[in-house]
Write a structure and sequence with these properties.
Elements (H helix, E strand, L loop, with lengths): L10 E6 L10 H9 L2 H10 L1 H8 L5 H13 L4 H18 L2 H12 L3 E9 H10 L4 E5 L1 E4 L2 E6 L7 H10 L6 E7 L5 H6 L2 E4 L4
Parallel strand pairs: 1-2, 1-6, 2-3, 6-7
Antiparallel strand pairs: 4-5
Helix pairs in contact: 1-5, 3-4, 5-7
């Protein structure tokens, strides 16, 4: 265990959830506090309050409520400015990383395994941190951009539950060709964990 090619002759893939697994918090809300003024946060929260209430009443899913908040905060922002914020945000992410998660990522990297993050969070602020920490791929929420401006809409499906497995299979369709390690911390990760050969729920060993 731990070699680039497993004992069965298959390559090894390590798939990590991001929020709550690699880092301690929900990255969306931390990014909002980092990137947006308090005044704008308050005004936007008031604007989307009906959707937040519907989420609390379990009428709409978490993902849809987050999309409404993201739209209120970032619609009309240039993608260039947004990506600059995301790049600088990598320093904040690093401070939230669980030491044991980083240690396990390093273990996989040293053994030549392919490391993937699969997350419902926005890929733009995950990718800069991922690149600087040897992550091979990020499968996360993609945002819509029109004429260089963020529309506020999410392009991809909610990467939660069975969709995490779907995104992995889109990236690596031949399941029999690899041994899969999966790491998660919530119900949204359980489909991926069940799909894995080696599953780690809220632990890394």
């Amino acid at each position: 265990m731990g070699e680039k090619i497993s004992g069965t002759g298959r390559k090894v893939i390590a798939a990590f959830d991001f929020d709550g697994t690699i880092i301690k918090h929900d990255s969306l809300f931390v990014f909002i506090w980092y990137a947006v003024s308090l005044k704008r946060i308050i005004l936007s929260t008031v604007k989307v309050m009906p959707y937040l209430v519907l989420y609390k009443l379990k009428v709409i899913p978490n993902f849809k409520a987050k999309e409404k908040l993201f739209t209120a905060l970032f619609k009309g922002v240039t993608i260039t400015d947004f990506n600059m914020l995301c790049k600088d945000f990598a320093v904040v992410i690093q401070k939230m990383v669980k030491p044991e998660a980083l240690e396990k990522i390093e273990w996989h990297r040293q053994n030549g395994h392919e490391i993937i993050i699969i997350s419902a969070s926005v890929e733009n602020w995950i990718i800069p941190w991922a690149k600087s920490n040897g992550i091979d791929a990020v499968l996360a929420t993609q945002i819509e951009v029109s004429d260089g401006l963020i529309t506020g809409k999410f392009l991809s499906k909610n990467c939660h539950g069975a969709e995490k497995v779907n995104r992995l299979l889109q990236h690596l369709p031949n399941r029999d060709s690899y041994v899969l390690y999966a790491y998660g911390d919530s119900n949204g990760d359980k489909d991926l964990l069940q799909f894995a050969d080696h599953k780690f729920y809220r632990v890394f060993v």
